[in-house]
């Protein structure tokens, strides 16, 4: 029997429904031409802010230093990421892309200039922004996509999510990402433990001949019934956003099989938040497939009340 890999994660409950929370317009964020990131360390400022919503489910972060590193360089750089937790809060976010000499991409003047001209932003600007956003949100899901750096944002959120899961489990062993490796055939599964608005994510990727052959992503209730079958909810969301789970969930699954890379998928109009949540979990499953690790990923997702 395979041992389950207990990994935890975070999902934020916002307003009346998860999917309606951040469903925005259909404009696609510009994609940066290369994967890029750089170091930035930000301390959580102890200022008076609006009281945080009450957590109703999900594991607490355990104090410690949690590290993730890519093994392979992409365009001469690889990601390194350290998250520090103190008193149950993320107090430092140190995300970087370094070359073989350990030099940060933020110091690559030529690349920064080229990307700035093409996308309107560069690593020396958007990486500090991502790190700061992570500290403020205290979750990967709460980090907004940076215009002009969509691919880098999605990569950041995937790795931040995995570090949060490690922190909830108290696992300080370095997470190694075999980025770019061939996908190993098999079934790779991720499931959330906790319901948000009565539903939780269940996601399985099937890899055959080194390709994603099936994507089975869904939101299910305590009885295992899909949100696509919730007629009342589908009607309500369709009236507000112009789409609904019975439409966008199949669209997301189809898009991943067609594109093979979450970062190359289009954001579904009216389901922006759901698209990004899908991409974040899909990236994590792909990381598992790169290693050939078929143990179920159990996500102890954090759920907040109003």
Automatic annotation (TrEMBL):
NCBIfam families membership: lipo_FMN_PplA
Entry superkingdom: Bacteria
InterPro entries registered for this protein in UniProt: FMN-bd, PplA-like
Gene3D superfamilies listed in its UniProt record: 3.90.1010.20
Record lineage: Bacteria, Bacillati, Bacillota, Bacilli, Lactobacillales
Spans annotated as Disordered: 25-64
Residue ranges of every copy of the FMN-binding domain listed in the record: 76-167, 198-289
Signal peptide start-end: 1-21
Pfam families: FMN_bind
Annotated keywords: Signal
Protein name (database record): FMN-binding protein
Record flagged with keyword Signal: yes
């Amino acid at each position: 029997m395979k041992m389950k890999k207990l990994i935890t994660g975070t999902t934020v409950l916002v307003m009346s429904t998860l999917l309606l929370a951040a469903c925005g317009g259909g404009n696609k964020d510009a994609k940066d031409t290369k994967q890029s990131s750089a170091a930035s360390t930000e301390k959580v400022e102890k200022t008076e802010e609006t009281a945080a919503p009450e957590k109703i489910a999900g594991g607490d972060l355990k104090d410690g230093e949690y590290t993730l590193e890519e093994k392979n360089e992409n365009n001469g750089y690889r990601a390194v990421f350290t998250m520090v937790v103190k008193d149950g809060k993320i107090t430092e976010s140190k995300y970087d892309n370094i070359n073989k000499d350990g030099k940060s991409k933020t110091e690559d003047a030529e690349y920064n200039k080229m990307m700035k001209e093409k996308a309107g932003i560069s690593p020396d600007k958007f990486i500090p922004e991502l790190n700061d956003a992570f500290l403020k949100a205290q979750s990967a899901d709460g980090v907004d996509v940076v215009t002009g750096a969509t691919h880098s944002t999605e990569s950041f959120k995937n790795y931040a999510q995995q570090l949060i899961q490690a922190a909830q489990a108290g696992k300080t062993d370095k997470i190694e990402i075999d980025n770019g490796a061939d996908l190993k055939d098999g079934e790779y599964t991720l499931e959330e433990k906790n319901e948000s608005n009565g539903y939780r994510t269940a996601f399985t990727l099937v890899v055959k001949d080194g390709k994603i052959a099936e994507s089975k992503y869904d939101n299910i209730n305590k009885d295992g019934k899909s949100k696509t079958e919730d007629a009342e909810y589908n009607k309500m969301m369709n009236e507000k956003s112009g789409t609904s789970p019975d439409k966008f969930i199949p669209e997301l699954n189809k898009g991943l099989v067609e594109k093979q890379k979450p970062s190359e998928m289009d954001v579904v109009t009216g389901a922006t938040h759901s698209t990004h949540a899908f991409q974040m979990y899909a990236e994590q499953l792909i990381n598992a497939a790169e290693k050939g690790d078929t143990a179920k990923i159990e996500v102890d997702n954090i759920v907040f009340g109003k």
